[in-house]
Automatic annotation (TrEMBL):
Parts forming coiled coils: none
Protein name in the entry: Metallopeptidase family protein
Species this protein is from: Nocardioides mesophilus
Superkingdom of origin: Bacteria
Xref: InterPro entries: Zincin_1 (IPR010428), Zincin_1_sf (IPR038555)
Length: 113
């Protein structure tokens, strides 16, 4: 397990988001990415809650933002170095954003995310 202080971890998440292709950022809609400094449910590294873009209809309006939560302690628990944490944060952010775009877990695994 690696210990990364909360501020540094949040910076890693920001860097992962900043590293996304600009085209994806332009398409993302009504989604907030947050960091939870605990472990999260059932050992998850991240969690997407919301209505994926592929399921939104013309009646989609006035709803709270989708939420992507990245779990700091859970990620640190599976990593052995700061570099591994950076890579796992990136992978987890991309994985959860995949859910925002309507991609399921099985397909994300096939794609290596």
């Amino acid at each position: 397990m690696v210990e990364v202080d909360p501020e540094r971890f949040e910076a890693m998440v920001s860097e992962a988001l900043d590293g996304l292709p600009a085209e994806l950022g332009e398409i993302m809609s009504n989604v907030a990415v947050t960091v939870e400094h605990g472990t999260g449910p059932a050992g998850l590294l991240g969690l997407y809650r919301g209505i994926p873009l592929t399921r939104r209809t013309t009646s989609y309006a006035g709803v709270l933002p989708d939420r992507i939560t990245i779990y700091r302690r859970a990620i640190c628990a599976v990593c052995h170095s700061d570099e591994e944490v950076v890579e796992q944060v990136r992978r987890t952010v991309v994985h959860e954003i995949g859910h925002h775009f309507g991609i399921g877990d099985a397909r994300l695994r096939e794609l290596g995310w």
